[in-house]
Amino acid sequence: MSGAGTDSTKAWPEGGPVVILVEPQLGENIGSAVRAMGNFGLSRLRLVNPREGWPNPKAVTFASGADRILETAEVFPDLRAALAGINFVAAATARERGMQKSVLGADAVAAETAGRIAGGEDVALVFGRERTGLYTEEVSLADVILTLPVNPAFASLNLAMAVAVVGYEWFKLASNGALPFQQPDRYPIADKADLLAFFDHVERELDEALFFRSPEKKPVTIRNIRNIFHRVGLTRQDIATLHGMVTALVEGRGTREARTAARLAGGKKPLAGPESSEPTD
To answer: Residue limits of the tRNA/rRNA methyltransferase SpoU type domain (predicted)?
Structure first.
C-alpha cells in the first residue's frame, strides 16, 4: 500500500513495545524499519550506536512520513544501556544460539508483550545488524528468543522486513484484527417477498423458453435454482438488477423473433450459407 493510505487526522497508537535497532548500518534501513513501525503502531525507537551517526537525513527520506518516530528516537552506546527501564526483552535472531531460552514466534511474542504491558511492564523487541545480526552475548541479555518460520535454507530477512512481520503480529493483536475500513452496506438485504417475486419471474420466463425439458425433473431443478440464489445473500438492489436482466433477455428474444417474422412476411429468406450446386457427371 502506498502513501494514499495515510490519514494525518487520525491519532497514532501509543504504549506499545520499544523497538531497539542494534548498530544499524545504513540510514536507509533505519528509515525503512521506522516506516514499518509506523504501519503497525510501534512508536518508540532506540538506536544502539548507528554506524553512520545520528541524526541521518536518509532515514528521514525512507521513513516516508513517519518522522515523529525519528524525532523521539533515543541513541545509546550499547545494548546494555539501551535496555534501561525495560522489564522484558525479546531478541530477534534466525540462528540457534545453544541457550536455554524459550524460542517464540512473532505471534507468541505479541501475546506475551500484550500481557506484560497490561501488567505495567515495559517490553523491548531487539533487532540486530543487517549483516551479522545480534551477537550471542547480546542475545544472552534477552528473556526470550524471537524467530520466524522462514525457509531454513534462506532465513535472513532484511531489517525492515523483520520489524514489519513482528510489528504486524503485535498490531493485529493490539487492534483485535480491526481492518482500517470495510465495504459499506449500501443496500439492505432482500426480504423473502422480494426473493419469491424474483423466483416467480425467472421461473416463468424459463418455462416460456422451454428450459424445463423434463416435467419429472422440473421441481428438483427449480429447488436447485432457488438454492443458488439463497446462498448469495442478495440485496434489494441485487434483486432489482436481476429482474432487469431477465426482462432484457426476454425483450431481446422478442425483438429477434419480431424481426425474423417481419423478414418472412416481406418475402425475404433468413440469412443462410451459400447454396451448393449439384455435382455433374
So the answer is: 18-168
